[in-house]
From TrEMBL:
Residues 8-87 form the RNHCP domain. InterPro entries: RNHCP. The lineage of its organism: Bacteria, Bacillati, Actinomycetota, Actinomycetes, Glycomycetales. This is RNHCP domain-containing protein.
Length: 101
């Protein structure tokens, strides 16, 4: 994998869905269908983590004036990170899944 492929989409490790890149200029690191992410970033988009583990959604929050955020926890090393919810575009996140967390 080249470091240049950061916003060109990916295949989900968990459900094997083909995930397309965001069309609004944002950065997506999680699957919209099962909401699993991959532990490849220290900061969103930097690809600086060596872990590569699957990250499960463990919670979500909504801050006034900001969009929803999903919190993820890595299965391999337990690192937690948050990512903005993707919606109003191609392949929006399945927000119903969040209500089951
Ligand atoms: Zn998936
Ligand atoms: Zn990890």
């Amino acid at each position: 994998m080249s470091r240049r492929n950061e916003n060109t989409g990916f295949r989900c490790l968990n459900c094997d869905a083909r995930v397309v890149a965001l069309t609004n200029g944002g950065y997506r690191n999680h699957c919209p269908f099962c909401l699993r992410s991959r532990h490849v970033d220290i900061r969103p988009g930097d690809r600086a983590a060596d872990c590569g583990g699957l990250m499960d959604p463990v919670g979500w929050r909504h801050k006034t004036g900001k969009d929803w955020q999903i919190e993820f926890e890595c299965r391999d090393c337990g690192t937690r990170s948050v990512n903005r919810v993707a919606r109003g575009m191609t392949q929006p996140d399945d927000l119903l899944l969040l209500t089951h967390l």
